[in-house]
Amino acid sequence: MAQSNVVFPRKLLKKFILMYREFNCLWDRKCLTYKHKKKRHDAVTKLTELVQKYDSTATRVHVLRKIESLRACVRREYKKVQDSRQQATNPDEIYTPHLWYYDMLSFVFGEEEGNFKDKQESPTPESEEDINTQEPDESFQPPIENYSHYAVISNTIEDNSPMSKQFTFEEDKSKRHCTEVDDEYDAIGINVAAKLRGLPPSMRILAEKLINDVLYQAQMSALNSSTVITTPDPFKQDIL
After folding, report:
1. Buried/exposed code over 160-187 (b: 16+ C-beta within 10 A; e: otherwise)
2. Tens of pLDDT along 84-116?
3. pTM above 0.85, yes or no
4. What is the rounded distance in angstroms from the CA atom of residue 138 to the CA atom of residue 131?
5. What residue stretches are annotated with the MADF domain (predicted)?
């Protein structure tokens, strides 16, 4: 069954990463509880409960996908840094990561370096199918090298081979997310979204219409410093 999307605002993502770091049974192969199925299950449950404080529709699937996405993005940036260090002739040529949470997830870099050596010893990663069919004590162990193979999205793509199309689309989507950098427009969007959520349904619909109308006028270069939104006075209309 397709899962709806869950948005992770920066405030939530910071808390999510910090909590993920505390549960080293999910990422540290040297941890004694790394292969402890129940411990990993409980850890993912705690992360899910955190996300549900921001979106009640969040599930374990959303949490597992987000972990996959975050580590895949950091892995790409980490690889770019390592490659640039080998080729750089001076420190200024070393690649600078663009992900704002790159340093926050730096604790997994040791796992990056040791992954190839320990790959055969790692527990089998949990796919979405496993999540949906196993009993509640399902495990979660996502080896960094296998993330792209298990990344899935909520939008189902119709095709003769839907699973392969799904994985390919998610890989492209993940790459786009890795290169996107939050700016003032993202902040404005989050602010507007928060205000819209607090409006009554009828007011929200009208507000969305006005916002879209303004954006349309802006795209048509029809806005200027004198542009205003006015509401006709019903009493004057009756007189006329």
Report:
1. eeeeeebbeebeeebeeebeeeeeeeee
2. 999 888 888 899 998 999 999 989 886 554 443
3. no
4. 7
5. 15-113
Amino acid at 41: H
Q: Which two tokens stand for residue 23?
A: 């549960």
Residue 69, classed as helix, strand or coil, is: helix
Q: Cα(111)–Cα(213) distance, rounded to whole angstroms?
A: 50
Q: Using an 8 Å Cβ cutoff, are 105 and 77 in contact? A: no
Instruction: Tell me if 66 sits within 8 A of 48, measured CB to CB.
Output: no
CA 6 to chain centre: 8
In which residue are the tokens 């009493």 written? 235
User: DSSP per residue over 194-208, as a string?
Assistant: HHHHTS-HHHHHHHH
SS3 180: coil
For residue 155, the one-letter residue type is: N
| Residue showing tokens 């840094």 | 81
Delimit the domains of the chain by residue range: 10-179, 184-239
Handedness of CA 17, 23, 29, 34 (dihedral sign): negative
Residue position matching structure tokens 């939008």: 155
Q: What is the largest CA-CA distance in the chain?
A: 84
Let me know the angle formed at the C-alpha of 214 by 182 and 4, rounded to the nearest 5 degrees: 50
